[in-house]
C-alpha cells in the first residue's frame, strides 16, 4: 500500500517516514503542502497521513478537497495534530478525517492507528 505523507515541516515528514519504515511500510510519497499533495495523489495512494496545521491549505481543507475526488472519497486519512490542535478534531471528522494521532507519537502508536483504519476500511 502506498502512503502519502503531508507536512510543511521537512523534519516532521522525516519523522513520519522513518516511523513508517520502522514498521515495514516503505511505499511512501511525500508532500510539503496540501496543494502539492493534491497533485501527488492518485488512486495508488491507499493511505494518507496529513498534518492538521499547514499554511495556504490546512489539513482539513486538504481532506475536503481529497474527498471531492472520485478516488479520494474512501481513502483512510490519519490527521497528525498537536495537543493544542485537539479543538480542531470535530471539524476534521466532519471534513472526512478517518482518525487522528497526537504529536509526539511512537512508531508503535502509528502502526496501531494504521492497522485499525485498514481493518475498518476492509469491513
Considering the chains and any ligands shown, give keywords for the structure.
5 strands, Rossmann fold, 5 helices, 123 residues
- Distance from first to last alpha carbon: 17 Å
| Spatial arrangement of strands, main beta sheet | 2-1-3-4-5
- CATH architectural name: 3-Layer(aba) Sandwich
Mind summarizing the main beta sheet?
A: 5 strands, parallel
Residue-averaged pLDDT, rounded? 93
CATH class: Alpha Beta
Envelope shape: globular
* Residue windows where pLDDT falls under 50 for at least 5 positions: none
Oligomerization status of the protein chains = single chain
User: What is the helix fraction of residues, given as a range?
Assistant: 40-55%
Radius of gyration: 13 Å
Q: What is the CATH fold-level name?
A: Rossmann fold
Count of individual helical segments: 5
CATH level-4 homologous superfamily: Response regulator
Structural summary, described in words:
With 123 residues, the chain is α/β, with parallel strands linked by helices. It has one domain: 3-Layer(aba) Sandwich (Rossmann fold), CATH 3.40.50.2300. The protein is built from 5 helices and 5 strands; from the N terminus they run βαβαβαβαβα. It has a 5-stranded parallel beta sheet, with helices on both faces. Strand 4, helix 4 and strand 5 form a beta-alpha-beta unit. Helix 1 crosses helix 5 and helix 2 packs parallel to helix 3.
Amino acid at each position: 500500500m502506498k502512503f502519502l505523507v503531508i507536512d510543511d515541516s521537512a523534519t516532521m515528514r522525516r519523522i513520519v517516514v522513518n516511523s513508517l519504515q520502522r514498521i515495514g511500510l516503505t511505499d511512501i510519497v511525500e508532500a510539503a503542502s496540501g496543494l502539492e499533495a493534491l497533485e501527488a495523489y492518485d488512486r495508488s495512494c491507499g493511505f494518507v497521513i496529513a498534518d492538521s496545521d499547514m499554511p495556504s491549505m490546512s489539513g482539513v481543507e486538504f481532506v475536503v478537497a481529497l474527498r471531492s475526488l472520485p478516488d479520494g472519497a474512501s481513502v483512510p486519512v490519519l490527521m497528525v495534530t498537536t495537543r493544542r490542535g485537539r479543538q480542531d478534531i470535530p471539524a476534521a471528522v466532519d471534513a472526512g478525517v478517518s482518525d487522528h494521532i497526537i504529536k509526539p507519537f511512537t512508531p508503535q502508536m502509528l502502526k496501531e492507528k494504521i492497522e485499525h483504519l485498514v481493518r475498518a476500511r476492509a469491513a
